[in-house]
Amino acid sequence: MSLEGGKGLELLGSVEEKFTLVSDFNEPTNDCQKDKCFISKGYDATTHFETTVDDVLDMYTRITGK
After folding, report:
1. Four-residue CA torsion sign, 54, 59, 64, 65
2. Over the stretch 4-13, which tens digit does the pLDDT of each residue have?
3. What are the C-alpha distances in Å from 25 to residues 10, 30, 31, 48, 49?
4. Contact 52, 63 (CB under 8 A)
5. How far apart, in whole angstroms, are the C-alpha atoms of residue 25 and residue 41?
6. Neighbour count for residue 62 (Cβ, 10 Å)
7. Quick one: CA dihedral 40, 41, 46, 50, positive or negative?
8. 8-61 residue pLDDT tens
9. Do residues 56 and 38 touch, judged by C-beta distance below 8 A?
10. pTM to 2 decimals?
């Protein structure tokens, strides 16, 4: 049982089948001011779009300088 969901899964009791997905999180390494190639970070489905909005705002700042 994973530590992240352990307590919640214990509350469920007997679980027939559990699916766990682990994926890489990617982040750009280029110098966007130099090459003018603005790349967003990878998206994490558990963020409820909070970090996605932060990434878009960060990209806007990098692109416009504002």
Report:
1. positive
2. 667 777 888 8
3. 28, 16, 19, 16, 15
4. no
5. 8
6. 13
7. negative
8. 778 888 888 887 777 777 888 999 889 989 888 877 666 567 778 888 898 899
9. no
10. 0.49
Q: Which residue has the tokens 């352990």?
A: 6
Using the structure block, give the residue that is written with the tokens 């110098």: 31
DSSP string, the chain: --TTTHHHHHHH---S-------------S-HHHH----PPP--GGGTTHHHHHHHHHHHHHHH--
Contact criterion met (CB below 8 Å) for 58 and 27 = no
Q: Closest by alpha carbon to 4, among 55, 49, 60, 44?
A: 44
